[in-house]
UniProtKB/TrEMBL annotation:
<feature type="compositionally biased region" description="Low complexity">
    <location>
        <begin position="370"/>
        <end position="386"/>
    </location>
</feature>
<keyword id="KW-0472">Membrane</keyword>
<dbReference type="InterPro" id="IPR019734">
    <property type="entry name" value="TPR_rpt"/>
</dbReference>
<feature type="region of interest" description="Disordered">
    <location>
        <begin position="369"/>
        <end position="439"/>
    </location>
</feature>
<feature type="transmembrane region" description="Helical">
    <location>
        <begin position="699"/>
        <end position="718"/>
    </location>
</feature>
<dbReference type="InterPro" id="IPR024983">
    <property type="entry name" value="CHAT_dom"/>
</dbReference>
<feature type="compositionally biased region" description="Basic and acidic residues">
    <location>
        <begin position="593"/>
        <end position="613"/>
    </location>
</feature>
<keyword id="KW-0802">TPR repeat</keyword>
<keyword id="KW-0812">Transmembrane</keyword>
<dbReference type="Pfam" id="PF12770">
    <property type="entry name" value="CHAT"/>
</dbReference>
<protein>
    <submittedName>
        <fullName>CHAT domain-containing protein</fullName>
    </submittedName>
</protein>
<feature type="compositionally biased region" description="Low complexity">
    <location>
        <begin position="629"/>
        <end position="642"/>
    </location>
</feature>
<feature type="transmembrane region" description="Helical">
    <location>
        <begin position="781"/>
        <end position="800"/>
    </location>
</feature>
<feature type="compositionally biased region" description="Low complexity">
    <location>
        <begin position="414"/>
        <end position="426"/>
    </location>
</feature>
<feature type="transmembrane region" description="Helical">
    <location>
        <begin position="812"/>
        <end position="834"/>
    </location>
</feature>
<feature type="domain" description="CHAT">
    <location>
        <begin position="73"/>
        <end position="344"/>
    </location>
</feature>
<feature type="repeat" description="TPR">
    <location>
        <begin position="449"/>
        <end position="482"/>
    </location>
</feature>
Length: 857
């Protein structure tokens, strides 16, 4: 097919690693890739998926049930694993090419890894278009086998279908008549048009099936019954009826031999059983479906999950109608899926059918001639069947064979069947049929309720509480009081409420809303599911107390209440020593208190004209009153009147102390940037024999320099360099931004104009910041450390022999190497000076608040 995209998937070097290769595609090319897939995790979820799919058939469910999330998650996981970057590009291009050609793109999966055959590939979900692939494009599983290309079988209508219903008495009972009626109703249209002829075997025994196969020809075999997967033999099986009426489990290899007696061999087999599509994880051909395809059957449609009656009827109707109209089998499977999607709204059972094909051709039949009218040639007579089953025997003139039954509806679908007996017997038969249908409907409802219960319980156990609550709501809507669903729903709701409260508390903690976070953690701290809630609550309460005390400290500082400021700072120190001096307010308050304790100079004593002459004294002289301090608080004095002891006003207020911690980290960042850059440039210049600089080395250097150097300058600004003024911070901001632009855009293989401009801007801002720092004599050492690496940075563009702004990788980049070494040395000196600042003792009264602001080495 011209519009096929074939993907071959094989094992990789380890468990969970696989390779995907585009064998052919409309867009051309042979893209490939590797991916990892949690196969065991998906296998563990298969029971949950089956319960989800079966539960979705309940008519009362929502249009978009929350349970679909499980199917969509698995489908998206498979899609994103399979369609790697290159393969996805080929897929999108091929999709466009197919649409341009007016055709559909068919996705063919060639599964060479056995365990991948167990994956539900029919759930493949494209998150970009938000669609399932098999809903819009034919999807099939290719089984590698010899004799790939079978020519289509020429068929003169009708297309003959052999129906087999096997209901052993020791397995869950199947309503044989209802099963036959379901398929007959699904094929009523094609049968009435003469395109299809449906013939039922008398019983599901081996001998009966073999007799029917010998009385062919049969183009299609449709099996309705029980199937399973035998993990001991690693092979799929179906259940026929034994001589004693019990189950006779037929392995795939025996079923292959049974079907081979038909001449010609049927090209299509439909297995409408519970697990006929299940496969082994170690043998690609152990499953019933794949074994039949390998043996020579052209295609097998199998059910990978249990399927409801309504979905089985809908799939058979669309599938066989498309086959009878000459469509390919993969297109017929897609039409069948679309028929399943019709009712009920929101059902997910369209993922249940899986199509396995042999070779590259999916055109199984070539219909030739005009269909004959079925009603004119059909002859029906009532005949008893073995096992208590009743049916209609119709022997076509073309193949008169006793012991088989042909089903040709004579009325419109849903109107019942024609009986040749009396009216009373017909009424009795109708009543029996209605009773059987009622029992079947009740059994299906019980199965669907059970599936909902299992799905909701699984979501609760997996701690997906929102999905569990919605599923339990659906279950209780359909069946109030079902088992312990009410109690489980309340438990899920409680867990959902607690989880939401905990998440909201975490969000409040992240946002710094300590009070709301503490309240939220207090609500869940008694729950064992949240063991950290109590400690988090205590921490948030402590942080809230710190925030309150810092606000109080600032309030006292604004009023000049220095004693209260010191008291609040002492209480803060018990909670967090690092928070005891916000913005240096506590240190300033202690300095003011110490200043107030210094005695004021006494005025010179002048003899009073009214005092007694020397030698005489009064009672007041014997008992003088103590003097009271009348000094005005420093905060209440005008700034202009506060002068130093020398009597001359200060030219500039002293600078606050440098913060040693960010100063040390800033120096460390600069030292690391210079050291790593030095190593890389040395390697480029003298040891790079494989030209790493051409294959990503320059990117590494740019990222290291463009992140670490700006970070170092930013931390220096936080530490207080060059000074704590708006002008200084603007200068340092320019240094940070221009250093980042220079690093990330500048150290390329060839010189970039952006880098050159950024280096000169960096030099200008560095000069500005250095001049500001030089104004304070105590910070001149820091000023020179800030000036040197920034102002001298443009020298890196000067290359060997005086050439300016050539590719520095193509010549000896000695100026760049010198710059990086200088940057490393400057960073180390910053770290050393920060350590010295840390060891300087606290300032005394005579030193003032700037005692450790600018200690020179």
């Amino acid at each position: 097919m011209d519009c096929d995209i074939e993907l071959e998937i094989d094992t990789g070097s380890a468990r969970g690693e696989y390779t995907v290769h585009v064998v052919r595609a409309p867009a051309g090319g042979h893209a490939s890739g590797m991916f990892t897939l949690d196969v065991d995790g998906i296998l563990d979820r298969l029971p949950q998926l089956e319960a989800t799919v079966l539960a979705s058939a309940v008519a009362a469910r929502r249009t978009m049930p929350v349970a679909e999330m499980a199917v969509r998650e698995v489908g998206q996981q498979l899609f994103q694993a399979l369609f790697t970057r290159e393969v996805y590009g080929t897929y999108r291009a091929s999709l466009g090419a197919a649409q341009h050609a007016g055709q559909q793109l068919r996705v063919v999966l060639r599964l060479a890894a056995p365990e991948l055959a167990t994956m539900p590939w029919e759930t493949l979900f494209d998150p970009e278009t938000e669609t399932y692939l098999c809903q819009t494009e034919p999807l099939l599983r290719h089984i590698p086998a010899p004799d790939y290309n079978q020519n289509p079988l020429d068929v003169s209508p009708p297309l003959r279908i052999l129906g087999i219903v096997a209901s052993p008495r020791d397995l869950p009972t199947l309503d044989v008549d209802a099963e036959k009626d379901h398929l007959s109703r699904a094929l009523a249209g094609p049968v009435a048009e003469g395109r299809v002829e449906l013939v039922w075997s008398r019983s599901g025994t081996w001998d009966d099936v073999q007799s029917m196969l010998l009385a062919g020809p049969w183009h299609v075999v449709h099996f309705v019954g029980h199937g399973d997967y035998d993990s001991r033999t690693d092979e799929g099986r179906i259940a026929l009826v034994g001589p004693d009426g019990r189950a006779a489990m037929v392995r795939a290899v025996r079923l292959m031999a049974l079907l081979s007696v038909a001449a010609p061999r049927p090209r299509l087999v439909v297995l409408n059983s519970c697990s006929s599509g299940e496969m082994s994880q170690s043998d690609l051909f152990s499953g019933t479906a794949s074994s039949l395809v390998r043996s020579g059957i052209g295609a097998v449609a199998a059910m990978q999950f249990a399927i409801s009656d309504s979905a089985a009827i809908a799939f058979a109707h669309g599938f066989y109608a498309a086959i009878a109209n000459g469509r390919t089998v993969d297109e017929a499977a897609r039409v069948g899926r679309i028929s399943v999607m019709a009712s009920p709204d929101g059902t997910l059972e369209w993922v249940t059918p899986a199509l396995y094909v042999r070779g590259g051709s999916t055109q199984l039949f070539t219909l030739r001639g005009t269909p004959r009218a079925a009603a004119s040639e059909a002859r029906s007579t009532s005949a008893p069947t073995s096992g208590g089953q009743a049916g209609q025997a119709a022997v076509p003139t073309s193949a008169p064979t006793p012991g088989w039954q042909a089903s040709v509806p004579l009325q419109a679908p849903g109107s019942g069947t024609v009986s040749s007996g009396t009216g009373s017997s017909g009424t009795k038969d109708d009543a029996t049929a209605k009773s059987a249908q009622t029992n079947a409907d009740q059994a299906m409802k019980r199965a669907q309720l059970r599936a909902l219960y299992v799905q909701a319980s699984a979501e609760l156990r997996a701690r997906r509480f929102e999905q569990a609550v919605e599923l339990f709501d659906d279950l209780l809507t359909l069946e109030p009081g079902y088992r312990d669903a009410t109690a489980l729903r309340e438990s899920a709701q409680h867990r959902l409420d607690m989880s939401r409260t905990y998440r909201e508390a975490l969000a409040a903690e992240e946002a710094g809303d300590w009070l709301a976070a503490a309240d939220g953690f207090a609500l869940v701290q008694e729950d064992r599911e949240f063991p950290e809630a109590a400690s988090r609550r205590q921490d948030c309460e402590r942080r809230q107390r710190i925030s309150d005390l810092q606000g109080e400290l600032r309030y006292h500082s604004s009023l000049g209440s220095w004693g209260a400021v010191v008291d609040v700072s002492a209480e803060l120190a018990t909670l967090d020593p690092n928070a005891a001096d916000p913005d240096g307010l506590a240190s300033a308050a202690r300095a003011e208190i110490e200043k107030a304790k210094q005695p004021e100079p006494e005025p010179a004593k002048q003899p009073s004209p009214d005092r007694e002459p020397q030698g005489s004294y009064t009672t007041a002289d014997l008992h003088p009153e103590p003097r009271r301090a009348t000094a005005t608080p420093a905060a209440q004095r005008p700034a202009a009147t506060q002068v130093p002891a020398s009597g001359t006003p200060s030219a500039k207020p002293p600078q606050p102390a440098l913060a040693w911690t960010p100063l040390a980290w800033g120096g460390a960042a600069l030292a690391l940037a210079g050291l790593l850059g030095t190593f890389i440039v040395v390697f480029f210049m003298w040891f790079d024999e494989n030209y790493w600089q051409d294959n990503g080395g320059d990117i590494v250097l740019r990222i290291l320099y463009g992140l670490l150097a700006p970070l170092g300058y930013l931390l220096l600004m936080v530490a207080g360099l060059p000074e704590r003024t708006l002008q200084a911070r603007l200068a340092m901001t320019g240094v940070v931004l221009s250093a980042a632009i220079f690093g990330l855009a500048g150290l390329n293989y060839t010189v970039e104009v952006t880098a050159v401009v950024a280096s000169f801007i960096l030099a200008a801002f560095g000069l500005w910041a250095g001049i500001l720092a030089l104004k304070d004599p105590a910070r001149r050492t820091f000023a020179w450390l800030l000036l040197l690496p920034t102002v001298l940075q443009p020298i890196i563009w000067i290359q060997g022999k005086g050439v300016f702004m050539e590719s520095w990788y193509m010549s000896q980049a000695l100026p760049l190497l010198l710059h990086l070494m200088l940057l490393c040395a400057v960073g180390v000196v910053f770290v050393v000076m920060a350590r010295r600042l840390r060891t300087v003792p606290a300032a005394g009264p005579e030193a003032g608040p700037d005692a450790n602001a600018g200690t020179s080495p």
